[in-house]
Amino acid sequence: MSSNLDEHDTPARCKSLGERSLAELAGMSPAYFGMVMATGIVSLAAHLLALPRIAQALLYLNIVVYAALCLLTVLRMVCHSRLFFGDMIDHLRGPGFFTTVAATSVLGGQFVLLAADYRAGTVLWVVAIMLWIGLTYTIFTGFTIKEDKPTLDKGINGAWLLAVVATQSIAVLGALLAAHIDQPGKLEMNFLALSMWLWGGMLYIWMMSLIFYRYTFFRLSPGDLTPPYWINMGAMAISTLAGSLLIINVSDAPFLTSLLPFIKGFTVFYWATGTWWIPMLLVLALWRHVYKRYPMKYDPLYWGAVFPLGMYAASTDRMIEAMGFDFLGFLPPVFLYIALVAWTAAFIGFFLDLLRRVRTFGS
């Protein structure tokens, strides 16, 4: 990602911030809200698995991180509008913007489950829907009508599945909120959650077909295997969570009763697909970092690898409750602790990177 500025890209109103700080802001990854996604889902998984202190601490941290990233994103949009909107129609960077949708929904879920603040959850849900509509039709329209397009091996990666995660995150938050409102709102919100869940599944099938084709028929170098490929699993995990919540909500919406066998079947289908990806992604990570000796250093994209681990823990826990699969009870705690270790490693990397940038800026 380039942080080069030209004079026309930096309006006069921003020059007072200093060229060096502007250069740092220019290079900010659109996928940085993945930090909020990862922190939020680890917090929710900790809450579901009876670790309330960790859950609450991560909620407070997530509020601060979300507010800071919103401010930085607005500053980047104002001060570097050409780079900001250019990223939206870039095949590799554009899908990263969907982290804003998922982050907003995940934070909303934290307010609902950890703070019982349904008003804040509803506001964030509405904001997430507005962001989803705007980004979906801006990004994919831009990809469609732009004249110069990359080839498949240069233009697609696992980050594209963030569009699926964003869609399913709205279904998840909608299903959570539906349990706490009166009729007819319960019916309508569950219907919207069901619709988003179904659309997210269709979108995964489209995108995963292209990604798998790119995997198997084009040369893959270690540098191509970026951390967002873990979203291959994460997109299925959040689809499992949304389906499980719909099953739990079945008594609130009669139309869900007639669809119950279908919803249960597809929920297990999503979980099984996500589970299949885990060994595959571990093997590819070993190939990248051990066999090919690709250096591991902090990158904001690594939050995209933490999120699926926490989501797998949370989604498996909800599926066990929804469908009575008690024999899977060992999985959520195992993946929660793995997610906590991964989150801690990513946060230490973030802190050290931030410290380095501050020292460089001050010198």
Q: What structural keywords apply?
A:
Glycosyltransferase, 14 helices
Description:
It is a single chain. The chain is mainly alpha-helical. It has a single domain (7-362), classed as Glycosyltransferase (Alpha/alpha barrel), CATH 1.50.10.150. Helix content is 73%, strand content 0%. The protein has 14 helices and no strands. It is globular and about 60 Å long. The relative contact order is 0.11.
In summary, what is this structure?
This protein has 363 residues and is mainly alpha-helical.
CATH homology-level superfamily: Voltage-dependent anion channel
Total strands: the figure is: 0
Instruction: Give the C-level CATH assignment.
Output: Mainly Alpha
Q: What kind of sheet is the major sheet?
A: none
Radius of gyration based on Cα positions: 20 Å
Q: Kindly state the mean pLDDT as a whole number?
A: 90
Q: Per CATH, which architecture?
A: Alpha/alpha barrel
End-to-end distance, in Å? 23 Å
CATH topology: Glycosyltransferase
Total of helices: 14
Oligomer: single chain
Strand content: under 5%
Unreliable spans:
1-8
Structural class: mainly alpha
Count of domains: 1
Helix-strand layout with pairing:
Blueprint: H1 19-26, H2 34-48, H3 52-79, H4 81-88, H5 98-114, H6 118-145, H7 152-155, H8 162-178, H9 185-217, H10 231-248, H11 254-258, H12 260-291, H13 303-323, H14 331-362
